[in-house]
């Protein structure tokens, strides 16, 4: 089932999410619904707060980015051919490498894209959907997507990295999103 993605201004997007246990109700269905929602909205990552759940769960699929890249982009990123994974109760252990800019967007903040600087690698501790424990290091685009989705479970958004003046310039667009004055081609829920 495709779930509505909550828009900027919805309180759950600013909430630090809670850890869950293997007996979390209907977890398998939630994960399946989140994958379906991710693909229906053409995203590469989706966090539970974006579907109005205040839990530490997010999905990442950087494989589709590499599958659709132009020939001149091939071989540019160290994490090709990408990675598809469920992250539960994630905790970033460390980030490394030089920060690099990339034009990011967010399904909860449609029609806004900005260059955001993030470290090139991330080491993260997490459980997968079967609650097998992992500690892995990711780099390139995959590391960026993980950091972006991890921010969601920490109550942060990519626009928080913008300089105050730039954020002020976007305020009108952000207000329009909060009021539901934006058209998207996926299911969206706006703040009441």
Automatic annotation (TrEMBL):
<dbReference type="GO" id="GO:0042586">
    <property type="term" value="F:peptide deformylase activity"/>
</dbReference>
<feature type="active site">
    <location>
        <position position="149"/>
    </location>
</feature>
<feature type="binding site">
    <location>
        <position position="148"/>
    </location>
    <ligand>
        <name>Fe cation</name>
    </ligand>
</feature>
<comment type="function">
    <text>Removes the formyl group from the N-terminal Met of newly synthesized proteins. Requires at least a dipeptide for an efficient rate of reaction. N-terminal L-methionine is a prerequisite for activity but the enzyme has broad specificity at other positions.</text>
</comment>
<dbReference type="Pfam" id="PF01327">
    <property type="entry name" value="Pep_deformylase"/>
</dbReference>
<dbReference type="GO" id="GO:0046872">
    <property type="term" value="F:metal ion binding"/>
</dbReference>
<dbReference type="InterPro" id="IPR023635">
    <property type="entry name" value="Peptide_deformylase"/>
</dbReference>
<keyword id="KW-0479">Metal-binding</keyword>
<dbReference type="GO" id="GO:0006412">
    <property type="term" value="P:translation"/>
</dbReference>
<dbReference type="InterPro" id="IPR036821">
    <property type="entry name" value="Peptide_deformylase_sf"/>
</dbReference>
<comment type="similarity">
    <text>Belongs to the polypeptide deformylase family.</text>
</comment>
<feature type="binding site">
    <location>
        <position position="152"/>
    </location>
    <ligand>
        <name>Fe cation</name>
    </ligand>
</feature>
<keyword id="KW-0648">Protein biosynthesis</keyword>
<feature type="binding site">
    <location>
        <position position="106"/>
    </location>
    <ligand>
        <name>Fe cation</name>
    </ligand>
</feature>
<protein>
    <recommendedName>
        <fullName>Peptide deformylase</fullName>
        <ecNumber>3.5.1.88</ecNumber>
    </recommendedName>
</protein>
<keyword id="KW-0408">Iron</keyword>
<keyword id="KW-0378">Hydrolase</keyword>
């Amino acid at each position: 089932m495709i779930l509505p993605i909550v828009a900027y201004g919805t309180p759950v997007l600013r909430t630090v999410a809670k850890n869950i246990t293997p007996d979390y109700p209907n977890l398998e269905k939630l994960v399946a619904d989140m994958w379906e929602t991710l693909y229906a909205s053409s995203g590469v990552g989706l966090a539970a707060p974006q579907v109005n759940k205040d839990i530490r769960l997010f999905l990442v699929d950087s494989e589709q980015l590499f599958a659709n890249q132009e020939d001149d982009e091939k071989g540019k990123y160290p994490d090709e051919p990408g990675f598809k994974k469920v992250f539960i109760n994630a905790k970033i252990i460390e980030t490394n490498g030089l920060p690099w800019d990339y034009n990011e967007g967010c399904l909860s903040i449609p029609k806004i894209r900005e260059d955001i600087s993030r470290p090139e690698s991330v080491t993260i501790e997490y459980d997968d959907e079967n609650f097998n424990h992992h500690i892995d290091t990711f780099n390139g685009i995959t590391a960026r997507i993980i950091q972006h989705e991890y921010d969601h479970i920490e109550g942060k958004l990519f626009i928080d990295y913008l300089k105050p003046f730039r954020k002020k310039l976007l305020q009108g667009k952000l207000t329009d999103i909060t009021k539901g004055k934006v058209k998207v081609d996926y299911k969206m829920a706006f703040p009441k």
